[in-house]
Amino acid sequence: MADQYLCMPGDSVLDVGCGPGALSFALAERKLTVTAIDNSAGMIQRLVDKIRLENITGIRVRRTDWREFPSKPSHDLAIACFFPDAFSPDGLHRMESFAAKRCLMVFGDGKDIFPLRQRIWEKVMDISLPAGSENLMCAVNYLTAAGRCPKTAALSIPVHMDVDVASAEMFYREYFAIFGRSGPHLNAAVADVLADYADQGRIRMQGISKPTILWWEPRADRPIPCEAES
Description:
CATH topology: Rossmann fold
Low-confidence stretches: none
Radius of gyration: 18 Å
Helix content: 25-40%
CATH class: Alpha Beta
CATH superfamily: Vaccinia Virus protein VP39
Strand order of the largest sheet: 3-2-1-4-5-10-6
Order of helices and strands: EHEHEEHEHHEEHHEEE
Structural class: alpha/beta
Number of domains: 1
Number of strands: 10
Number of helices: 7
Shape: globular
């Protein structure tokens, strides 16, 4: 984002669906003022705990449904990272309602870097794991049809996982709680899958992440059509 001059020190950023805050922390390190929102109590608590533990400044945290967050263009940049709710026409419309200068989304390539989520999903969910590989193309088409000039950049990033098993178990319990899954069945599924990869109480993996960044400038004179207005 910095290389493309999409954000500058002092800019205000809204991180939609922030999760445990990885992107929020990276933005705060670059001296941006971040508002991080998520509807998951567990994810927000992990974010707050790290802010307190590491005495991080520049991040304001709110637990809220992003559909209920005030629709005011009060942030220079609105970001949604791996957040499928924002990929539809309604989602794009709502993202623009937050941004004064530009919007940015991060899309995966439809493949998990590590097999953990896929294996747990297969054990506890009643539907197959969505691939998500067409989300980027659809978003670009929506934006182009709405008179925007979307731009993209493909990345290849080495990723290293090194976490203790207890932290990984907590993360996946909180993640699947978003989909309404909790209790002994989920706990057993998480423990069984992680046990296959644990070594001396830790899970260590390496992989390559290949996300694509999509960004564009909102147009107040030509709002993106959405179902609520049709």
